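During the second half of the funding period, the structural biology subgroup turned its attention to how the target accommodates small molecules. The most pressing case was protoporphyrin IX containing FE, which had performed well in the primary screen but for which no bound structure existed. We therefore specified the complex as follows and requested a full 3D prediction, including the ligand pose.
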Amino acid sequence: MIATLLAACLVLVALYLVKLIVQLRRNIATAKASGIPYTIAPFFAINRLYMLSCIFLLPLYRLLPKPWTEWWVDMTLDWGWTRRYEAFATMGADTFLVVSPERIMMHVAEASVINQITTRKTDFPKALEVYESLRVYGTNIVTVEGQEWRRHRKIVNPSFGEKNNHLVWKETLAQTQDMLNGWFGENKERTGSLRTIADDAMRLSLHIISSAGFGVPMVWPGSHVDGKTAAQEPKFINGHEMTYTDALGSLLHNIVPVIALPTSLLKILPFEFTRSSYQSYLEWGQYMREMYNDKKNLILSGVEGDSLDLMTSMVKGAGISSKETSTSPNLTTTTTPSLSDEEIMGNAFVFILAGHETTANSIHFCLVYLALNIPAQRHLQRDLDTTFQSRPVSEWDYDHDIPKLFSNMAGAVLNEELRLLPPTTQIPKKTERHSPQPIIANGKKCTVPPHTFISLSPHCAHRNPNQWPHGPPADPDHPSHPLSNRDNDLEEFKPERWLLSPGSTSNPPATTNNNGAAMNGGPTTDENDTSPDTSPQLYHPPKGAYIPFSDGQRACIGRRFAQIELLAFLAYVFSQYSVELCVEEWADDEALAKMSAVGKRECWEKAKRKVDGQMVNDMWSIITLQLRKGFIPLRLVRRGGEVFDYR
Ligand code: HEM
């Protein structure tokens, strides 16, 4: 009996292997015919089972000879970050296929191919399977394609107009001031070692999206809003077990189980983390529903005032307006919005998710990079002095000051940070099952096979020496990355690469508004927004070479929201303060004060090497790319009180 069972199992395994071999041979033949360089892997890198197995089996896979594993081990979601351009250099092609029995995957770091893919939206739709799990509260703009996506985008787009950007500017300045008050305390000239910058940046961007997104002000612990402190934050209505702040904080803290596990499972699993995940899911959902109904009622009664937040605009955009009250007194049953309640909730959730970690990371890493690059920091401060001319922050003006910030070192720092550390390690596209697509890749006519999973790699495209001007590395003995771009400076933070010589301007911005539609000849869904995304005074890379926000019609809708937030943050902080590496591991303040200039420099260099190592080894992505181990010790000092000032 056992022998029969074993034999049956063996036959099944053998049949399965034969099937895999047949599929692999078929996929290899397809790849060969495509004209695109290819390599072979036993697994489809983003197969969930394979990715799960990596948690346990990766150390074993790594024992196999490198040539056997080079194109699949470690080539899961994060590989664009870990290997960077080195993989393309090794392959000798900026677009290549990895063929597995399950599916063909195409990796792209080639600007012109990225441009073809992002502009031919119907031929290369978004690979929605990657985003399935984001339907936590309902279908939303990220989880749909085609006509459905157009409907969402049309309604959501006006929310991200200039009115909202004014609010983002104002709110960022206020929230940054609160954060710095917390860091400095009373009358201090410099902070101690700031160990929670990454968390504080998260809190900062969460407060901004909460206010500019939903009209819900959140206050820093200890600070005051309308006479209330954070501790007194009112619950939205009775019946909640958490405050709004706690519910949102807990939801984001538990975001991985919340999006990875079905809510029905979260509800019944007996673990502490699943219980708190489910609780925060319920609580925040409840707050959102209340907020939504509140806004709907205000709009319907015609007393919503001039609220500028995303949620109010979305509710209005969904077709709910005060006019309807006259014809339909029953507010909720007779209004048929073009986004359902569930879809509005779904979009509210992705705004928070897409809009908070991404910008928080940039805030954190702008500080880190500027601490590592003191001349760039001083340049930024000089440009801010010229922009604001000693005007107090209360007199800063969005319309007057933002165009200047976009076109000087502040814009360059923002662009350079997002060149080196775009928060997403891949932008997933695909070809449909029966739809091979002609394309020009690696300079020749090719065909992307049907049912190919396409990974546009921002990290690799942004470091591709074939499409970015570059110079020699600053310090060839200490390369910024052990494998990638060792013979050039594309791994280095050099915001100056974006600054054009005085008097010259670059090509017109490739995208002209924040819905990314204009350059495609596609329909522009927000006719009112003509604000440029980047300044003509800054360098414009070839189309497709720079894609932190993706490109084409499905580019990030929150691009300008994020840019305004980052520029306001940089302006507020660096107009008054400098950021420095904390060298406490090597010398305390007293020892530093007595140290010679050479000794101080040595300390600084040691701290820098350590941070360089952390930025290579201790970062990986869970949703977005972040420092996941330890912290980078920095501190802020009032300008003029710097300990380190190297040119
Ligand atoms: C530095 C900040 C940000 C970066 C680098 C960024 C990057 C991106 C990228 C790469 C995409 C395309 C994803 C894909 O196609 O797979 C995207 C889409 C999106 N982003 Fe952002 N994002 C940022 C900030 C924001 C903010 C602040 C919001 C909202 C407040 C936001 C909302 C969205 C939404 C709703 C989409 C989906 C758009 C669509 O499919 O039509 N993002 N973002």
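Two results from this model are relevant to the next phase. The longest strand covers residues 95-99. The pocket of protoporphyrin IX containing FE is lined by residues 126, 141-142, 153, 209, 350-351, 354-355, 358-359, 362, 418, 422-424, 427-428, 548-550, 554, 556-558, 561-562 (CB under 6 Å).
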